[in-house]
What does this fold into?
Amino acid sequence: MHHAARRLVRAPGFTGAVIATLALGLGATTTVFSVVNAVLLRPLPYPDAGRLVSLSHTLVAGGTLRVDQSDASLLFYRRHSAAFAHLGGYQASAAGLAPAGGAEAERVAAGRVTADLFPALRVAPLRGRLFTDADDRPGAPPVAILAERLWARKYGRDPGLVNRRVGIDGVPHEIVGILPDDVRLPAPDTEVWLPLRLDAAKTDSASFDYQGVARLRDGVAIDAAAADLQALLPRLPDEFPGRMTRESIARTRMQASVRPLAAVVVGDVNALLWLVLGIAGCVMTIACASVANLFLVRAESRRDALALLRAIGASTGDVLLEFLCEGLLVSAAGAALGVAAAAAAVRWLRTVETAINIPRLAEVTVDGTVVVVTVAIAALAALLVSALPALRWSASPMSIGAGGRSATAGRDRHRVRHALVVSQVALALVLLVGAGLMARSVSRLRSVPPGFEPAGAFTFRMALPPVGYPGADESVRFFTRAADGIAAIPGASAVGVASKVPLDEVGRTDTAVFVEDRPLAAGALPGIHSIVYATPDYFKAAGIRFIAGRTFTRPDPPLVALEAVVSRAFAERYWKGESPLGRRVRILVRGPWYTVVGVVSDVRDRALDRPVDQMIYCPLLPAHQDTRWAPRDVAFVVRDTADRDAVTRAVRGVVRSLDPSLPVYRMVALADIVARAAARRSLMLFLIGCASVVALLLGALGLYSVLSYVVSLRTREIGIRLALGAQPDALRRSVSRQGIGVAALGVAIGLGGAAALSRLLASLLFDVSPTDPLVFAASAIFLLLVAAAGSWLPARRAAAVDPTIALREP
It folds into this structure.
């Protein structure tokens, strides 16, 4: 090892190139494996997490739908199922925290949970206690549990906070415990937990608003648990009569579903992450091929020294050990740099966690497992790149002086190096095609019209606590005053209020809709549509264009007009070729009839890559089942024509003047929401693009190094050919053809690999064929141009050889 280190120090160019190349490959592989390990391989951060399952249902209503739990089903399964040791439920929410220590009021992510949820997870509090059944009963004194990070950030880890009262949504709550940050339900950013307090006397069995989590009893399999719930399901309407009946269960073919909680938390990113890991593996393979080529070139330059070792009795093992020591040293240095680069990349990924929407990203660390895997990959790379020149040395005859520059190189001496370059070019083409397909996909996605005008507008949310705003009338009056105050701000051209904004999941309401003049056939199910509750100016503020009719009349709490605005897709579904104006729709079975007064352009409400949504817009204060109801958590949309910072400061001032205890949260430009909708594909484009650039550079450098070395070995031969009358241009073309030929073989092989990759990318592409001929042809041509550029300098050097000097060389 000492002698190997001395040899590497004496060759700083070679050593630096090898370490940098390995660091690049190992850094990429370590970063991606860190994510895969945390998201897919590592169990959820709960004891015996493999026994945790998520409970839901599937039903058929215009297609197969997956729905969660109702309050009735949670209570019923908990009472009667024998498959679970604990069964709990939760609902994502938000909570307004009273100011503390001079800070402003704050809105934080919250979870409303049943008392049995934390025992199901087997979590223990850092301080205090968990919820009890007494805390979870309707009418019990208000209590709350805080997350450790909120306790540290807002209360300075005050040990006396437990058993103290804190204002939450305007109501003093006793803080009974502090939970560790590992608890990430209902959402990764949840910081407050409140009792759910389901009331068995007031349930709605057909409103699937809650999620269920259970811990399987020992010896009970997932399939057996699902069968147990399915046997119970038809009995649910007997114990909790309501809108769900035995007939509706049979008609919708409703099935109980039990899935591992880890699979539900991870969602649909499995294929994406494995694909990214494969891309990182390609980069690592290209790096190893490049380093192996450099080691082969180095071995060629040491042929006399190696021949001397053989002459004095060195075995193949002795020479292998020499190369292996060098390989281990450079791999160790590359691994150290790669781990450091991966740690920096992981820190960056955490900062963009929300934007790219990959679950469990906050849990990603470069831990011991990741380091061990990186060291193992580095050791394997060291073995591969050092064994190749040693085996080549042992398989070929050598004599001292045979490796000089005067020797004419046979084809067999370059065949292995050419094979390595071919593999580099082939993998580079695979990545380049992937980057091209993703680039076209992202471009197509960003050109999709969202149905509203995001430029020049921003949104924020506000939520009203029941204390101070007990009814719908009070809520709407406050929102109306706030909107009027904001509209008076210089630079605010339009202000609207809605229960949700497009492409944002917060506030989504999907429900059954009945159309008066389209009665359902016997046994048919009503359509499920997205409902948005809005003020009349919302359409102007959001830039949603009217096609026909008008907006709502201005809301007046004593007299609310039962009017509705529908999207063009909704109108086309129910009244194709007819005017929808004056038609009536009803939300839920016993809801009032709304008269359609307007039709607006279609909006992509869920995602840019999904069909336009068939939507209904209702007034912010609708009548519902003989009661007056309005959303308490709403989004304001402000279209501004002045300095954005000045307008947002003025908005906060307006809200504080009306109620200083209400926080403004989730303030973001509409354009950023649209950009976030394409974030996952943009991330894939970024990753594959970076890998492609690295692959192109390494491939071009590999080709350049091989051709340069070939030219150096052929100096005497080239000199003879020039002395005999060969033209420099012909020599340039000869060397260039050699490089382009090697690259062309790599391109031909890479096209097959690219076709395989494109099939894996198909689920991530949008409006682009996985075998897009334009992308394949452009990638191949571009790579051949890069190969031609990489061949030009060695070809130029060959043509510039002075015959008189070359013939005098030994």
Q: What stands out?
A: DSSP finds 25 helices and 24 strands in the chain. The two ends are 34 Å apart (CA to CA). Confidence is low (pLDDT under 50) at residues 402-410. The first helix runs from residue 2 to 9.
